[in-house]
Amino acid sequence: MIRFLTILGMLLLCLDSVKAQDIHFSQYDYSPLNLNPALTGLFGGDYRGAFNYRSQWFSVPVPYRTISGSFDARVLPYKLEKDVWGAGITFNHDQAGDSKLSNMQFLASTAFAKYLTKGLFLSAGVQVGFGQRRFKLDQLTFDDQFNGDVFDPNIQSVDLSNITKTTFFYFEIGAGMNLRYQASRRTWVNVGASLFNINTPKQTFMGTDARLPMRLGINASASIQVHTRFDIMPTFLYQYQDPYQEVVFGASAKYHLNVNPGRETAIYLGGGYRWDDAAIIMAGVEYQTWHFGFSYDINTSPFKRATNSNGGFEISLIYIWSKVPELGAIKTCPVF
Questions:
Q1: Which of 22-31, 80-89, 140-149, 315-324 has the lowest mean pLDDT?
Q2: Closest to 256 (Cα-Cα) out of 247, 265, 244
Q3: Average pLDDT over residues 226-251
Q4: Domain spans of the chain?
């Protein structure tokens, strides 16, 4: 734990500030397939469904909204012994501004986690898919559409002549690795690295050769049981996409209301900070294999003048379930 906090502090001292980033969540640990492809299938169960919703800057005229849904499953869970093979799919949709500029993604991922020694797994994963970016012109106005007195929508703006299309598709590739140490059901550590947009897909509405830069991600999270009823959960995320970067860190305290098998119930409360951008408050409830989380961002950047310090709220939902394994060969009872 001391080493983890030391490394975290060194990273923070070496960084400048956050300016912007791609689709992102404050509860990034509850959007695992967007966080790192190597986390595909890395959970306790056979199937996992996740949903995330974020509304950012709702105090400005047009808020930014992001929706994500994913499903992943363990492949051949009863035949790989201690190794884990996972496969999953992800859908993302992000929309912003008067132009309704949107980004929609359909992604497929797979990962294999190799058992190294007691409680230690090393996983590697890849993610491929396609995306669509589009916008609408009907709500946009340009300065040369003013006739000197009032706005005239019948005047054709010269800016529109540079736009060759309002929709385009692109293909993208991502990959990642993750090291997991599982001491017990409630004590574990994840440390991983990922790289998205490896093929730097073309991103332009005007026919130019604009490219989406690769995005590097470093993630770390842990759950540490400190008492029969209490766990501490620190978390950290660093992302870099030339020339922008994002640093988010925080921690939560979880209290277990019921620790009996089949009736596990817990609540947690915590906070975090996105460097030079927002303070984060989060809370959640876990019941058996259900998880529900809520977070709220308080804007601390210069943009708070426009948002009145309102950042955005976010919800996360995860459900994990298992199938009943098939019975083996019928054996004769020795009593008879």
A1: 140-149
A2: 265
A3: 94
A4: 2-320
Do 26 and 314 meet the contact criterion of CB atoms below 8 Å apart? Answer: yes
CA dist., res. 256 & res. 238, Å (int)? 30
pLDDT of residue 248: 96
- Contact between residue 40 and residue 125 where contact means Cβ atoms under 8 Å apart: yes
135: closest CA among 166, 175, 106? 166
Q: Are 308 and 300 in contact (CB under 8 A)?
A: no
Place of tokens 């929609």: 104
Query: What's the pTM value of the predicted model, to 2 decimals?
Result: 0.83
CA distance 15 to 20: 14
pLDDT tens-place string over residues 90-103: 999 998 877 888 99
pLDDT at 190 over 80: yes
Q: What is the spatial distance between Cα 100 and Cα 166, in angstroms, rounded to a whole number?
A: 11
Fold of 2-320: Porin (2.40.160)
Query: How deeply is 59 buried, as exposed, middle or buried, from its count of CB atoms within 10 A (0-12, 13-18, 19+)?
Result: middle
> Measured between alpha carbons, how far is 11 from 219 in angstroms, rounded to an integer?
12
Q: Which residues contact 12 (CB under 8 A, 6 or more apart)?
A: 247, 249, 275
Joined tokens for residue 322: 């298992």
Which H helix or E strand runs over 214?
A: none
Bridge partners (DSSP) listed for residue 65: 55, 95
Residue 238 corresponds to which tokens in the numbers above? Answer: 């660093």
Amino acid identity, position 228 = T
Taking alpha carbons only, the member of 269, 221, 276 closest to residue 247 is: 276
Quick one: 132 exposed, middle or buried, by C-beta within 10 A (0-12, 13-18, 19+)? middle
Concatenated DSSP letters of 269-315: EEEEEETTTEEEEEEEEEETTEEEEEEEEEE-STTHHHHTTEEEEEE
What pLDDT is attached to residue 169? 93
List all residues 6 or more positions away from 274 whose beta carbon is below 8 Å from its beta carbon: 18, 26, 246, 247, 248, 280, 297
